[in-house]
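Shapes recur. One chain:

:::
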Amino acid sequence: MKIKFLVFAVAALMITAINSVAQSTENNSLPIQTIIKKDEKKIQKSNSAKEEWKKTWSIVVSYNTTFDTNLEHETIPKSATGFVPAVTAGYQLRSKRHRFRFIYGLAASRYTKNTELNRVGQYFSAAYRISFGKWSLETEGEAVLKGTNEDRETNNQFITTEKLTYRFNGKTRATIYFAYRLRRFAPEDAGRDSVNPMYGFKFSRDFGSKFQWDVGYRYDQNRAQNPRQNYVRSTYDTSSKYQLTKKDLISADLSFRPRLYERTVTVGDIRIPRRDRKYSFDLGWRRDVSKNFGFEVIYGYEKQNSNDADKIYRNHQVGFSLFYHWGNGEAIIP
């Protein structure tokens, strides 16, 4: 029995040795180029894993000058010239599927007219985006301190936004979003403190490498402590950009904002809800003089109609700005 067992053991060892030699011979018989390619793929995978994250930073310093024919949107227009030095710093960390972005901005607004719009404003933003196939999901938080919005209010705002984007192809994409905004005013205007839920969509399309167009809609509701400040508003907007030359960019924006208030106004012998309709148009030309330095010229027109005669106004704005950019990539701005 022992002899039989030893014979079987020796036979098993011989078979194993023969298989090992055969596999080794087969590997050695592979072309040298095939072995090199396999090694290169391993090296590339290793390098791609190490170089997956890309860091980008930028600092943009600008000086803006504007002239408004009706700065505070009053029935009787009063013109003013404004000077706004500003600095915006941004940092971005990005990989194939993930992106982190942080932005801080500081601006000091001064006008030739004594107005509450003379102030120092700050902006903070932090955002995270994840991509999966043609879809991407982005979460963003913003804080605007003494900044301005489309209503030119000097309040503090805190905004959180969730965006879902689908890319049909490399040139066409659609985004739906939901945002929730808190607005806080000075103590004497505490009745205007409000929450502002909003949602909307945006469709964008690139035509070639020079022309970009988008159209969007947004619905928001203002819920204030004082019911007189409650309203619902829709925003219809479209914008386009055209790369005229390598250094020249033309942009145009058009929007329409109807707004319906909860409070009423007297029209004739009856009281009806206040209703505003705001139209705005902006046209800009940007020129990159060098890689880091450039200027921009803008023109804007805004008109509001209302069944409240005290809220009717129109304004023309002309602006000129200079900017300088430091960084290791494109400018990171809001």
